[in-house]
Amino acid sequence: MPAQCSSCTDKRAVLKRPKTGHSLCKECFFWAFEEEVHQTIVAAELFKSGESVGIAASGGKDSTVLAHVMKLLNERYNYGLELMLISVDEGITGYRDDSLETVKRNQQQYELPLKIVSYEELYGWTMDAIVKQVGLKNNCTFCGVFRRQALDRGAVMLKVDKICTGHNADDVAETVLMNVLRGDIARLRRCTAISTSSEGEGVVPRCKPLKYAYEKEIVLYAYFKKLDYFSTECIYSPNAYRGYARTFLKDLESIRPSTIIDIIHSGENLSVREGVKMPVQGTCSRCGYISSQALCKSCVLLEGLNRGLPKLGIGKHHRLHDKILSQQPLTEKEERKLKSVDF
Amino acid sequence: MCQVDEEYHDQLERTDVLSASQKCVRCKEASAAVVIRAGDAYCRGCFKEYFIHKFRAMLGKNRIIFPGEKVLLAVSGGPSSCSMLSQVQEGLSQKAHKKLRFFPGIVYIDEGGAIGQSTEERQRTVSELEVVFKATGFPFHILPLEQVLDLPSSVVVMALPPLEQPPSAYKAAVDRFNQTCGSDCLTPPEKQKKSLPDVHESHTQLLQQLIGSAKTLTAREDLLNTLRQHLLVYTARTEGYSKLMLGDNCTRLAIKLLTSISLGRGAQLAQDTGFSDSRYGDIIAVRPMRDYSAKEIAHYNHMFDVPSVLIPSLETKTSEKASIRGLTESFVTKLQTDFPSTVSTIYRTSEKLQTVCRSSSTDDHSDRCLLCLCVLDTAVEKASAFQATLISEQVSQTLSLGPGIPRQNSGPERPASAASAGQCRSLSGGEDCGRATSGGSCCSSAKETINLKSLLCYSCRLTIRDMSSVDHLPLYIMSEAQRRQRRSQMRDEISEFLLNDEV
């Protein structure tokens, strides 16, 4: 039985919104989706007129839709922003080189300047080389930490005021679940914030305009708008711990679709007891990037890679930071601990 | 493995194969009987000591139960609560070292009516439990859940909490108790309650209608939990108990934490899973079993013959994806096999949380949820998930959004009531019906229009949303809802004259 669009009640509905269950026609869905992102941007005061904003583009669905919607809303509502694309090349053959083609196509379609930064030029290591050393577990840690810094470096090169990433509601909900499972109370408190703080040398504040958009709706939007994107899973991701949280979330969504937003609501409203130890923000003594320890995670990981000690940085090694800084050699026992890798 | 701040030990150790002839790691004399955690093998005697000590330490550390207090033990018949019962017995026995000093009572709520058990089955379960309860010598109360339909509305109102005691008061109270009574004082009063009173068939039907009006198993469980809690608090109040002991163990609390997060109860996590829960004001609920894993309890019960009764619940024989709680349980259990520290990590996370203490205007109870009695978390803050849900509802339906918002195609502007046709029941309708307070043009009910949702916290709203009709809710809930609504309307009328900067 053909249903009428519940918004304009005029046209026939062609889709059912995963978020609310309403049946909508194509145009009303576009409008609803874009309007929600616009309301998010306005309510959270993410941007100021005249700023230059770097859109973190990976060629995947989230960043493609983000680029499209940002450009659209910038024109429709006169945000007055100057938009640019920043892309990171991690050096994963068969995955990243294909998605970068998508980003280059996006650049042409949307007529936005593009900057690509690569791990190779920033750190001297590609992800393929890292995985050969580290193995198939824990490599997502390397990729994530390096990418964060890479984005910041790219942003500084382009001289943008803010970065926006395509994290969607499913990502934020997964992160909340993951932080509970891992007992990371500090991250649990911060992870639902829509934008990061802006203090620190060489740090560009970043925000998530798509924070309340469901992943399924992003795909629906891209499908109906005929946006082109690259849709393969990273070849190294099946073994990530996040996969457990993701499966759990997908199952939750099938029981009750509003769970995704409910988890975000929980994350926003929980509060941590006083007296719980929290990390303090400082700077890395080696590279000057923000860090809560003496050495930032990037430096620690790089040190481990360069010295053939891949486990340095995975796990707790605060006592070794001083040793690394002062360039003392590590004892043999310590080296043995850090070297072994399980595949 | 993937825990933050985890220490990495030396790799490639030879794992010691646990053999039957291994010695207990504690006393190193007797042979080991049970392995708790990874690699800790205990003998019978040491295990019993360890188990008992944990219970005592949990109560002693928190110093919430004062000597001479009456404490109500909520026993469901399951292994955890029966273990708790046996620990209390153990702690009160004459020969105990540093005896417990409170007066316990037992309450069992028979939920057979809600899950569709026959009267014979219910009677059988009750008889089994009666045997267990009588053997303890404590006063016990067996109540059918149907009694919840007759509760007064004071149940959902937070009572005044007892006066704040300084920390030294506990020690002083203990000394005083020891001086006046000593150990002879603790003979329990002989008043034994009658067993399961006769339940009217009509009441059972009403209860089943109520539970059945919730369309999803998740909502049904939530509703059942709420009703059970209300009945427990009511019993504690009327029988003069000041504390309520619940038998949630570590595993169950870890699952409860994840479930609560998935249900949107982030603001209430500390009360849902913490040691003490003071949301009712005068009755404080405590969870002394929260340090025990389900495995430890099972071992203890088996080794020391603690009786327990298997009672089916709403979830029995359903698939694992039927409800959020069931899914979370299977998820945590499976994850625990690959990552043995999962449950303890989640449990430790729960210890670091707290409840936000809003302004202490507890006089006006309209800042508490009607059903779960926790502080409301539905203040529409800018850029919050809650606001996002409201916006989503707005943009997906025909509602007047005001001028200035361009739309690609302007359909005919229909009035709000027609758009939600079929959903016109004021009680379960969306925001639009709530705004039509006067006139009630879209509501055909004779009684007062109640916007139930505005009185509920985020997750209780989700439960109500899953209900096909709220007409079956017990009278005490509805009358309290009406009272609060009237009061809030009163306040709106005089708001400009009130000096206090109220919510």
Automatic annotation (TrEMBL), chain A:
Keywords: ATP-binding, Cytoplasm, Nucleotide-binding, RNA-binding, Transferase, tRNA processing, tRNA-binding. It is found in: Cytoplasm. Residues 282-312 form the Cytoplasmic tRNA 2-thiolation protein 1 C-terminal domain. Its EC number is 2.7.7.-. GO terms for molecular function: ATP binding; nucleotidyltransferase activity; tRNA binding. Residues 53-246 form the tRNA(Ile)-lysidine/2-thiocytidine synthase N-terminal domain. GO terms for cellular component: cytosolic tRNA wobble base thiouridylase complex; mitochondrion. The keyword Hydrolase does not apply. ATP binds at A56, A57, S58, D62, V88, G166, D171. PANTHER family: ATPASES OF THE PP SUPERFAMILY-RELATED, CYTOPLASMIC TRNA 2-THIOLATION PROTEIN 1. Plays a central role in 2-thiolation of mcm(5)S(2)U at tRNA wobble positions of tRNA(Lys), tRNA(Glu) and tRNA(Gln). Directly binds tRNAs and probably acts by catalyzing adenylation of tRNAs, an intermediate required for 2-thiolation. It is unclear whether it acts as a sulfurtransferase that transfers sulfur from thiocarboxylated URM1 onto the uridine of tRNAs at wobble position. Belongs to the TtcA family. CTU1/NCS6/ATPBD3 subfamily. This is Cytoplasmic tRNA 2-thiolation protein 1. It comes from Amphiprion percula (Orange clownfish). The gene is CTU1.
UniProtKB/TrEMBL annotation, chain B:
Pathway: tRNA modification; 5-methoxycarbonylmethyl-2-thiouridine-tRNA biosynthesis. GO terms for molecular function: nucleotidyltransferase activity; sulfurtransferase activity; tRNA binding. InterPro entries: CTU2, Rossmann-like_a/b/a_fold. Keywords: Cytoplasm, tRNA processing. It is found in: Cytoplasm. GO terms for biological process: protein urmylation; tRNA wobble position uridine thiolation. Residues 401-423 are annotated as: Disordered. One of its GO terms (cellular component) is cytosol. Belongs to the CTU2/NCS2 family. HAMAP family: CTU2. Plays a central role in 2-thiolation of mcm(5)S(2)U at tRNA wobble positions of tRNA(Lys), tRNA(Glu) and tRNA(Gln). May act by forming a heterodimer with CTU1/ATPBD3 that ligates sulfur from thiocarboxylated URM1 onto the uridine of tRNAs at wobble position. This is Cytoplasmic tRNA 2-thiolation protein 2. It comes from Amphiprion ocellaris. The lineage of its organism: Eukaryota, Metazoa, Chordata, Craniata, Vertebrata. The gene is CTU2.
